[in-house]
């Protein structure tokens, strides 16, 4: 039994969807979330800068005495994960490998789509990891740069969003993918619109759900579950407490007891 | 007469619309454009960082022996312009004041809309400068965060774009503005869609056009016009020569003789 909190961080607001899913699956745990909203987006930065920023956040979380850290950010997961894993003495879990594993488990026709930001798709990280385990799988990749601003405008199921989904994903539908990896932590907020577009016939693989399963497994194996009987707490930190962050955290977590605080990395 | 080039820079690709307009109005001039595409967007960065980055670009342009520099970036213009003007010995022109001046000249009903990115609108810079000259003018402001990604996806007049315009600007239409300041250098690419939405009844004030008039005036007063009789050249530099930059520069400038080169600020 271990009552220390779990740390979760992202370059911005997207990781809140991961936090939400973890909270759903591990309700008795305490969570500390850091969003580096003053320095978002990480996707355009060099690897050394990304690793430096991530280390600053990890140091902050370690001071808060977390028992495990989830890197709820595709850019950090694909650039800096092995460095972070080697440097910190708590388990560090990224968002990419759990998503890959779940996609491989779920696909039946072995025809899988991957969507993400331009930098994630350009890195081909998901594709590489999937093909490493199954050479014969058919993979379709598509960058969807409009999805993040649409989510940040809270247009989760708006007619604009439906047009954007059609524009980006009609080829995936034509190719009859049966599994779609949401390679960006913003995208789970488009679940309803995506399900409608695919008529519910495609498995949507969200980082939040796949990571939560992995975390649950580690807590179980290492006997790190909290012994708390009541609901755990959520504490949010952001390097810029802008309207965007407040808005999305309200919408995503729909929990008014969440504490919110400014953090500085200067 | 002065055959030195004119320098133009932006945090990314948006300033290309300013370059295009300057080229149209001053065809015999040579232009050097710098887009800091590796470090875009500037809007989320601190003022000191923005000034540092802008100075690095200005130093590069000075080494290229430019006769005048246009800061084709709203973020730099609103944060660092007076510092840059005082530090460099060539004329330095930002995008905000020329746009304000042209809007004041053009409006008849003194009912003006201002659109831009979240950081530009939050700064209220355009509004302040307009009101300083005419206290009775009615100003409506609106951040339009979807417009930049729509432009970068080349969806200039797509049904998605039309829906976004309607969503953001129907209040402006209801208020019967007669002048709209495009407070972001990406937005002139939406001119056709905006004109259709406003049925051609609203003056669209683009930075490119208003800045070009100011530059023309300075060149004339200081006798700095090029003596060239043929078309001048365009040389583009970008800190990341990504697909986005190549694509937009092709579309915006539609000139295959443009030279393109990588530049590093490390």
Question: What characteristics describe this protein?
Answer:
homodimer, 266 residues, alpha/beta, Rossmann fold, 2 domains, six-stranded parallel beta sheet, four-stranded parallel beta sheet, 46% helix, 17% strand
How do the helices and strands line up, and which of them pair or pack?
2 copies of one chain form a homodimer.
Chain A: E1 6-10, H1 16-25, E2 31-35, H2 47-63, E3 68-71, H3 74-87, E4 92-94, H4 96-106, E5 111-116, H5 118-123, H6 125-133, E6 138-143, H7 147-152, H8 159-174, E7 179-182, H9 191-197, E8 203-206, H10 207-221, E9 234-238, H11 243-253, E10 259-262
Parallel strand pairs in A: 1-2, 1-3, 2-9, 3-4, 5-6, 5-7, 7-8, 9-10
Helix pairs in contact in A: 1-10, 1-11, 2-3, 4-6, 4-10
